[in-house]
Design goal:
Keywords: Membrane, Transmembrane, Transmembrane helix
Oligomer: single chain
Strand content: 5-15%
Order of helices and strands: EEHHH
Number of helices: 3
Structural class: mainly alpha
Distance between the termini: 14 Å
Largest sheet: 2 strands, antiparallel
Radius of gyration: 13 Å
Number of strands: 2
Helix content: 40-55%
Strand order of the largest sheet: 1-2
């Protein structure tokens, strides 16, 4: 894909803020996703869990588009 060359734009997987992991999932990324879900929830007055799940699915698809292999993308896609 054309976006693969930008895969390290926010840092390499497992380094920097991405190195803090729980069950091999980046804690900071997950907390920021939850915070974004909360902010969206304040605006839309919708179900926080549904918003969080939608954002996580979007995150998986975005990581896949940028060819970034994460624990969650490995669950849904196989990388070579």
């Amino acid at each position: 894909m054309g976006l693969c060359k930008y895969r390290d734009i926010f840092g390499k997987v497992g380094t920097g803020v991405h190195s803090l992991r729980l069950f091999d999932i980046a804690v900071v990324d997950t907390l920021l996703t939850l915070l974004l879900a909360y902010v969206i929830n304040l605006y839309l007055k919708s179900n926080l869990l549904v918003i969080f799940i939608v954002l996580m699915v979007a995150s998986i698809l975005i990581h896949r588009a940028f060819c970034v292999e994460t624990t969650l993308t490995k669950m849904f896609f196989s990388f070579k």
